[in-house]
Amino acid sequence: MTTLTDHVTALVDAELAMHPKATRADRMLLDDFRRLRARHVPITVTAPGGATTTCIMVTRSNGAYTMVWLPEAELFSLCVDSFFGPVDIGVHGSALACFSSV
């Protein structure tokens, strides 16, 4: 039986394997992503309006942002770090697209 964290790990691994490394900027992005990649564990995220939901952490904080997997939407999401934990800021999509939007 595949767990949710196994599913997220497989999605991220597949995306990293497909991403071209043609330019220096691509290599830098991939290096940064790999450096911040977290063990995929559940984390509570605050959604717009104050509701909370359980997501899967994909990257550790870079000091301002954390990236998570939104299970209900089946999308990656960029969250701003706050005193109360990560807050979904509405940047959703593929892992590298979200990560590179910072």
Oligomerization state of this entry? single chain
Order of strands across the main sheet: 1-2-3-4-5
Largest sheet: 5 strands, antiparallel
Number of distinct beta strands: 5
Query: How would you classify the helix and strand content by structural class?
Result: alpha+beta
Structural features, described:
It contains three helices and five strands; from the N terminus they run ααβββββα. The chain is α+β, with helices and mostly antiparallel strands and 102 residues long. It has one domain (4-100). The longest helix has 15 residues, at 4-18. The termini are far apart. The mean pLDDT is 91.
Secondary-structure map with pairings?
Blueprint: H1 4-18, H2 24-36, E1 42-46, E2 52-59, E3 65-70, E4 75-82, E5 85-93, H3 95-100
Antiparallel strand pairs: 1-2, 2-3, 3-4, 4-5
Describe this structure in a few short sentences.
With 102 residues, the protein is of the alpha+beta class. It is built from 3 helices and 5 strands, in the order ααβββββα. The chain starts with a helix and ends with a helix.
